[in-house]
Amino acid sequence: MGKIIIAGNWKMHKTQAEALEFLTVLKSKLEDTDEAREVVLCVPFTVLSILSKSLHGGLVRLGAQNIHWEDQGAYTGEISGAMLTELSVDYVVIGHSERRQYFGETDETANLRVIAAQRHGLNPILCVGETKQQRDAGEAETVIINQLKRGLVDVDQSKLVIAYEPIWAIGTGDTCEASEANSIIRVIREQLSNKNVTIQYGGSVKPDNIDEIMDQSDIDGVLVGGASLDPVGFARIINYQ
Ligand code: 13P
User: Fold this and answer.
1) Is the CB of residue 96 less than 8 Å from the CB of residue 165?
2) Residues of the chain below pLDDT 50
3) What is the pLDDT of residue 171?
4) Is any ligand 1 atom within 6 A of the Cβ of residue 225?
5) Would you kindly state where each structural domain of the chain is located, as residue ranges?
6) Are 171 and 204 a contacting pair, CB within 8 Å?
7) Which CATH superfamily is domain 5-24+37-238 in?
């Protein structure tokens, strides 16, 4: 088992004003939250700065949604490790299926980004997961094992988070059965040399299924999309029973 990490992935949502409004409500709901639970908000680049000032010293950590593998250069639209660490960012989501599907991210580029994140002292959250077609063909485990093999070349497993996000469960309301997610996560753990890596589940996590998900033996946390946009609902997820 790894450290418990409950992360929200806002994707392309929220302006600065909306982010501050969210944070005010969220903070008011976390007064009794167990400090052993790490809470992370992976937000658009444009709200990192304002949130880093408001989060200072609190329970909530800041995450970004991308990082380039070079430290600087002619890479229009990309962001460097130093740009993130300057804003007190601690985590970065890498290889999300939406980056793979819409922006040509591969296991190889995800691997370069994971290495860059670690070089800058950031915690990479490497996402893996199968499509519905791959699942129906009985290939889920093979696909995930291959993503891990390629994504983790030369990666230090002492500073790493893995998120298992079955693509068919993302944004669909079609949650993977908690027990099924647990068994895939067990397979993921078998592939790792460090058995204490935090392995999260992601895909239609909601206030009404979080308790069952977190009750599983091998699931160390969640990466939440849509349900992390509402501060009351996200607080309920963080404060799972
Ligand atoms: P949903 O929670 O909206 O299904 O998104 C999951 C996800 O992609 C988190 O990274």
Assistant:
1) yes
2) none
3) 86
4) yes
5) 5-24+37-238
6) yes
7) Aldolase class I (3.20.20.70)
Give the per-residue pLDDT at 175.
77
pLDDT of residue 228: 98
Picking from 201, 202, 180, 199, the residue whose alpha carbon sits closest to that of residue 190 is: 199
Check pocket membership of 121 for ligand 1, CB cut-off 6 A.
no
The single residue of 38, 96, 105, 130 carrying the catalytic annotation is: 96
Q: Residue 154 — left, alpha, or beta (φ > 0 → left; ψ -120 to 50 → alpha)?
A: left
Q: Which atom of ligand 1 is nearest to the CA of 172?
A: 4
pLDDT of residue 222: 98
Q: Which tokens belong to 122? A: 């950031």
**3-state SS assignment for residue 112:** helix
> What pLDDT shows up at residue 2?
87
Name the residue at shortest CA distance from atom 9 of ligand 1.
225
Active site residue 96: yes
Q: How far is the CA of 206 from the centre of ligand 1 (A)?
A: 10
- How many beta carbons lie within 10 A of that of residue 221, not counting itself? 26
